[in-house]
């Protein structure tokens, strides 16, 4: 049965039109790294478990802790009106459509505005990764106010995040998409830093410390490398933005 099991009901009344940051694994694991960092740096509360159709029926356990959890969870920080959708496993695009449909009623109840995150594969250089923003009707003025750059080429977002963005357009729900240049082969903490500082921060007005993210880049890359390899072997499950020039 599709459902969200709320574990911290006391936080629901404290949330006022919150912003949700989506952290499904994708190219460079940008969304995953950014979401995990937000949960850690703000010591966010485990708000709920997601049992929507399409989410694999597996149990996740954490290092040094005996408690098991579902692989897709929600975390909340009432002080910042912030929610994070965290996933420890890849989600197939067809399953992501079920996930988006399942979340929609909950989005409406809490008046949630989602920020979907995606990497676009680019070979690493010494330059700061470029970032640009897209969105559905109702949020474009906020992208402009946040001074987030416009796309420099025509492209698409595929994988689970693409499916959720497509559902937002179809349902008429406001939603942001942030796209950042990312390493196509390895976890990319630098791209995650850029999407936090130049995308999530200006859209939410929340200052996010990233020193630990930068200082621990090597450790983060090593810790996420196995998941990154899994994503490479299942490209259809990997969130990514890609140019459309070749098809035009």
UniProtKB/TrEMBL annotation:
Pfam families: PAC2. Residues 225-248 are annotated as: Disordered. The keyword Membrane does not apply. Keywords: Proteasome. GO terms for cellular component: proteasome complex. SUPFAM superfamilies: Cgl1923-like. Residues 225-236 have a biased composition (Basic and acidic residues). InterPro entries: Proteasome_assmbl_chaperone_2, PSMG2_sf. This is Proteasome assembly chaperone family protein.
